[in-house]
Design a protein that fits this description.
The complex is a heterodimer of chains A (152) and B (112). Chain A is mainly α and 152 residues long. Helices cover 60% and strands 0% of the residues of chain A. Chain A has seven helices and no strands. In chain A, helix 2 crosses helix 4. The radius of gyration of chain A is 17 Å and the shape is globular. Chain A starts with a helix and ends in a 24-residue tail after the last helix. Chain B is an alpha+beta fold and 112 residues long. Chain B is 22% helix and 11% strand. In chain B, the strands form two sheets. Chain B has a two-stranded antiparallel ribbon. A two-stranded antiparallel sheet of chain B has the order 2-3. Classes of the chains: A mainly alpha (152), B alpha+beta (112). At the A-B interface, helix 4 and helix 7 of A face loops of B.
Chain lengths: 152, 112
């Protein structure tokens, strides 16, 4: 029913488990096809995407519906990821915001986007902040991003 | 950026926050909870859940000492992920001023 509504250009006016599922499916389809983000995710999730999609449904259910369905440590998970550059968060947020606006009424899309931006900032801080560097981190063209302290 | 637990949690310790936190970043002292600033993802889910309105975004003014206290005790107190009975006199202490000076205990809470 709701899926039909979306196809007719009508957006969801409520956040529930079903509309979150549709958001997650649509968003990660875009992520996997994205030139910048696709390879990072393909490396992190080489096999079945089912468990990751379930995790993300639970995560957003916890954040938007306070359901407590997700329990995990996303900071630790992100710190383990290989090849992530700080600018990729902007791409992630742009794709997520776009998908939210396609599926949800504007005020709900804005609520998702606001949460996502705050969470992204926390993950960026956890992954890239160093006490001896200014924040926000500005990336200069002549400087490799996220350069290691010393080459090994 | 993170949220911090502030004065009015002391001796109220309702623990509603721990049920909704997606990342289990609450740590329990004898009479209050704190948030681990490196684990909090700033999702804001806990803020409206606190009956004592003790959870505040750390971007607010004058929270430096609370942020320090949260960081310091999150490192030593046990993690709490399951809500228990709040203190029987929680309501009487809700809103009492300067609870830190009068009642703060550095003692650890019980494990989950």
């Amino acid at each position: 029913m709701t899926e039909m509504a979306t196809k007719r250009g009508v957006t969801f006016d409520r956040v529930d488990e079903d509309t979150i599922r549709q958001l997650i499916d649509a968003f990660y389809s875009k992520v996997r096809a994205d030139a910048l983000l696709g390879p990072i995710f393909a490396h992190a999730i080489p096999g079945d995407w089912g468990p990751h999609l379930a995790t993300m449904r639970n995560f957003w259910s916890s954040v938007m519906l306070t359901s407590g369905r997700y329990k995990g440590n996303p900071v630790a998970v992100h710190k383990r990821l290989a090849g992530v550059e700080i600018g990729m968060f902007d791409r992630w947020l742009a794709l997520f915001g776009e998908t939210c606006r396609e599926l949800f009424a504007p005020e709900l899309a804005a609520e998702f986007a606001d949460k996502a931006a705050r969470i992204a900032e926390s993950l960026k801080l956890a992954m890239f902040y160093r006490p001896d560097r200014p924040w926000p981190l500005t990336v200069r063209k002549d400087e490799p991003e996220n350069a290691p302290e010393s080459a090994s | 950026m993170t949220f911090v637990v502030t004065d009015n949690c002391i001796k109220c310790k309702y623990m509603d926050c721990v049920e909704v936190c997606p990342v289990d970043c609450f740590y329990e002292g004898e009479n209050m909870l704190v948030i681990h600033p490196d684990e909090c993802i700033d999702c804001g889910v806990c803020e409206p859940e606190c009956p004592a309105k003790a959870i505040i975004a750390d971007t607010g003014p004058g929270l430096e000492n609370w942020l320090k206290l949260n960081a310091e005790y999150a490192a030593v107190w046990p993690n709490i992920t399951v809500k228990r009975e709040p203190p029987s006199d929680a309501k009487e202490f809700d809103g009492v001023p300067e609870k830190y000076e009068k009642f703060f205990s550095p003692g650890a809470g019980q494990d989950d």
